[in-house]
Specification:
Blueprint lengths: L1 H13 L8 H20 L10 H23 L6 H4 L9 H26 L11 H25 L2 H16 L11 H4 L6 H13 L9 H25 L3 H4 L1
């Protein structure tokens, strides 16, 4: 059921367009080109350790793009499927999974673009790079926890979706995606570890941006999974608690 609904979401997303699935390529490419000209050409930004800025940037943008787009879709998953929610036999808790699965397709396309950049800059393939699947799984855990929570609250407070767009915009800029952590004063740099997305972004970069692999510290890994577990438990509990009231409110 999840797979069938995810395919329907993808078909609906590009239905009636001349480009079809090609828009899934155009969107990330356009973002990369704009940021490249603004920061690499305009501001002459450089990646850390003299890494090509565009490669370093895209390695951080790939997980962010997946997280940003998917979380917004999951948040609206209940309110945008009222015809299914009102059916008492339908398991509404799977709707966040539906949008998570459909979000994998644009993410895979973005990874394909990134693979082309890796080849262009001569970054050789290493077996350790397959560990990017672990950080993808970390993203999924965080998305499901936040998604269950926000999707349930969105039914009662429609402002959640509008506020989320603002929060995600702020979250983008406080996460070192465009800027390098090295520009921060040493005494404030440790605060980045409290941002769970920093763990994921740096995980992608450590595996893909350089010829040598860099792994997150044990402390950062433990902290992320503590936060991720708490978010999943809170999100799951809130969703189950509010689920019986969805049909009446909608």
């Amino acid at each position: 059921m999840i797979w069938a609904l995810a395919l329907r979401d993808l078909e609906t997303r590009y239905a009636g367009t001349m480009g079809g699935i090609l828009w899934a390529f155009v969107h990330p490419v356009a973002i990369v080109v704009i940021f490249y000209f603004v920061f690499a050409i305009g501001f002459r930004a450089q990646g850390p350790e003299n890494a090509p800025f565009i490669l370093w940037f895209v390695c951080g943008l790939v997980p962010w793009f997946f997280f940003n787009e998917t979380l917004q879709a999951i948040t609206k998953s209940i309110t945008s499927n009222s015809h299914l929610v009102k059916k008492t036999v339908f398991p509404t808790e799977i709707l966040p999974f539906v949008y998570l699965v459909s979000g994998v397709v644009p993410h895979a396309i973005f990874l394909f673009i990134l693979a082309g950049l890796l080849i262009f800059y001569g970054i050789s393939f290493r077996v350790e790079q397959l560990a990017v699947l672990y950080f993808f799984f970390c993203s999924c855990v965080l998305l499901l926890g936040l998604g269950w929570l926000l999707a349930a609250l969105q039914v009662f407070y429609r402002d959640i979706g509008h506020g989320l767009a603002i929060i995600l915009n702020m979250w983008f800029w406080i996460t070192p995606i465009v800027w390098s952590p090295e520009i921060m004063p040493e005494q404030y740099r440790k605060l980045l570890a409290f941002n769970p997305l920093y763990y994921i972004v740096e995980g992608y970069r450590g595996l893909l941006s350089f010829d040598t692999t860099t792994w997150p510290g044990i402390g950062e890994t433990i902290y992320f999974w503590l936060v991720g577990s708490v978010v999943v438990m809170i999100g799951s509990y809130t969703f189950r608690r509010l689920k019986p009231e969805f049909p009446d409110v909608m």
